[in-house]
Amino acid sequence: MAIDREEDMRMILAAAAALLLALPGARASAQGSLTVYCSVLADWCQLMAVEFEKQTGIRTNVSQKGSGETLAQLRAEAANPRGDVWWGGTGDPHLQAAELGLTEAYRSPKLEELLPWARRQAEQSQFRTVGIYAGALGIAYNSELLARKKLAAPSCWRDLLAPELREEVQMSNPASSGTAYTAVATFVQLFGEEAGFDYLKRLHRNVSQYTRSGPAPARNTARGETLFGIMFLHDAVAEAIEGFPVKVVSPCEGTGYEIGSMSIVKGARNPDAARRWYEFALTPEAQSLAARAKSYQTPSHPRATVPAQAPRLADMKLIDYDFAKYGASAERTRLIARWEKDVASQPR
Fold it and tell me: Which domain holds residue 81?
């Protein structure tokens, strides 16, 4: 009788397992799971996760944070990683993570299909990260507020220093935001370090708020909470397409740009799933999802769909941004520390 009961139990368990696999979402569980640290807008993060799960059956969990915050999280979790892949966000922190040994080397067979700037990002990091999109830094302003205040539209970075613009400007905080770190590194490269920090100190008088995330100044400009914002131009374009009175400016002196990147976390719990995400994210089909998510960066795969409204990098005066130098951990730490000491701590 004991043998019969044991056989009955095995049959019950087998039937229960078959029933579970038939339930919605069971295929995903059967195929494993993946945790993605995502440093783009939440809608794009979720759309990518949904499409990846649909194609692979891998249950995908997304944690959305800015690139500066994600780098800090990777450092804190180095002994016990919780994420598998870091997707999106400015490339400088990805390069720093590579330098610190927080990410794994992986050379995708799709690498040669990508645009040259995306391949260079991979080569500079010893294939520990790769470019997935690019976007230029610039200025956005609220055209209705500008007319109401009877002010002139800016055309250059120096226009934001005018005394009448006191507390009319927002940018993000470089300690938490890759966008703002790109801005600091841009001003240092554009004007020289001393003149660049002099610019930041003078700009500080006109800044009403340093936001935690890079896209926040675009949202706040669109909704009239600030007149001017410093951000990646694609974030402001997204607000304009939604019908907000936002105009964008690529500054006359020249501007820096980001190479949004992707990296596999060293010691990831689900390395096979991470590599499948990596390959998925480099396809033109996956990169074309940006348009559906109302994100207007320039994708790294030349066959991906680029929305007509996306800012055209070829039409801008871009600086020769030194990703190797400003993507180094020591340089980022030094510049942020100097910004906190010489700029953020000063009275307005």
Answer: 33-134+259-313
